[in-house]
Amino acid sequence: VAGVTECVFCRIIGRELPAKVVSSSPAAVAFLDVAPLAPGHLLVVPREHARHLHELPAAGLSGLAAELPKLAAALLQVTGADGYNLLQNNGAAAGQVVEHVHFHMIPRRPGDGLGFRWPAKQYRAGESEEILERFKLALAG
Ligand SMILES: [Zn+2]
User: Where in the sequence numbering do the catalytic residues fall?
Assistant: First the structure.
């Protein structure tokens, strides 16, 4: 039946499931994550269902993106945090659990214990040039 979905975020958007919704616009809905990394941790989701960012039409993404600055300003005001991470996972390998595009907005403070891993690598000789050419071909299509 059209409109029936197992997607938990679509059901929140459709008000079939309860959520602490902090913001709702034609493009996006923002609500409190039920399992926050810190109080005030938000999830920002496009109304349009797409599993991954690369499957979301650009118009849906731009509408969502337009909401982010005011949501971030509110998050800083409400939580008193010193900063925030905007995190967007695509695919199980990247840690995505709910298969509806979502952005985590996570309040951060020095010493909050959440950590930050950024184990940067180095390209071998010629590798970055080769990858650059492959990107140019992929984006030319
Ligand atoms: Zn959905």
Answer: 102
